[in-house]
Amino acid sequence: METVGLIGAGLLGSALAKRILAAGFTLHGYDPDPAAMRQLQELGANTEDSAAAVAPVCNRIVLCLPTTDIVKDVVSEIESSLTAGSVVVDTTTGDPNTTRELSGQLQARSVTLIDVSVLGSSTVTADGNSLLLAGADEATAAPVERLLNAISDRVHYLGRVGAGQEMKLVANLVLGLNRAVLAEGLHFAEGFGLNPNAALEVLQAGAAYSRVMDAKGHRMIQRDFEPQARLKQHLKDVRMILELGEQKSRWLPLSILHQDILESAQEAGAADLDNSAVIEAWNRLTGPSE
Length: 290
Fold this sequence. Notes:
The chain is about 55% helix and about 10% strand. The protein is α/β, with parallel strands linked by helices. It has two domains: about 5-160, 3-Layer(aba) Sandwich (Rossmann fold); about 165-285, Orthogonal Bundle (N-(1-d-carboxylethyl)-l-norvaline Dehydrogenase, domain 2), CATH 1.10.1040. The protein has an eight-stranded mixed β-sheet with strand order 3-2-1-4-5-6-7-8, with helices on both faces. Helix 1 (about 10-20) runs parallel beside helix 2 and helix 9 (about 165-190) packs across helix 13. The longest helix has 29 residues, at about 165-190. The radius of gyration is 20 Å and the shape is globular. About 45% of the residues are buried. The model has no long low-confidence stretch (mean pLDDT about 95).
């Protein structure tokens, strides 16, 4: 039975753990949050006392961490324990430039690092319906092919380290703006006194439709913000999108506005809520619908 390590067991990490365990892998995991560790144990994973303790028992390690800075810290912690031929799969939505640097650093130890971004919420991922964006070609990713297929049977190989994260940021730009537009549309409909559920049904039936409406529409209307993917994480992504856009001389005016909207929602207390809580940026000005 193959053994896999998992470092980071938050919303997405726990969903990955479910998929990996369901495929028959033995899983050794670590997260600094005791609640996340308990959840790993309940799922059937073995838990370790530190990230460094995961590396000696696994030559396939999945990272699922909040930021690139934390990835750097974890790589520094586990690097000396990684054996030649090991593969590190970084699912963090992070800075592709830093990921390429870390890949080169580990390659000097005959360790492969590839970025495999996960497009889909924790719920979508746990159900096996996410889309994986791999910063590698199929040959480089071959040692972890079965692991990736355990997470999702939809994998796009984008050829070079960092490309998965770059494509994830492109997708998140479009997806996040879809959520913001839906929130504003529902807010506008409310101003006319239209039934919000009827308004959502019309939007879903016509040319304005997007999948975001299915996943987030009723949650916005009902203010059901139990997190599947936290708003503060998307704000982090938008800030990174703008930083990288500036580096690449790309004009991203909608993302500039989107950052302001997300910051307003965060100031309204929505940071740790689901990203559908972006509608709180409008609610804080006019109050939510009854």
